[in-house]
Automatic annotation (TrEMBL):
Keywords: Membrane, Transmembrane, Transmembrane helix. The chain crosses the membrane at residues 6-24. The lineage of its organism: Bacteria, Pseudomonadati, Pseudomonadota, Betaproteobacteria, Burkholderiales. This is Preprotein translocase subunit SecY. It comes from Acidovorax delafieldii.
Amino acid sequence: MDWVPIVFITFKVLVFGTCMFYAIKWHHDQGKKAKEEASRLQTPTDRAPDVAE
């Protein structure tokens, strides 16, 4: 019965480590996506010469 805590703790560390990796990756990707969206919206778009403001 001494092996049970070792197995459960190892499993817990692997699961939490994997979940933390994907959570950090997801947040990083969301920040990159928001930054690209903001920079895309701030760049002036080309207008047709006959369009009046």
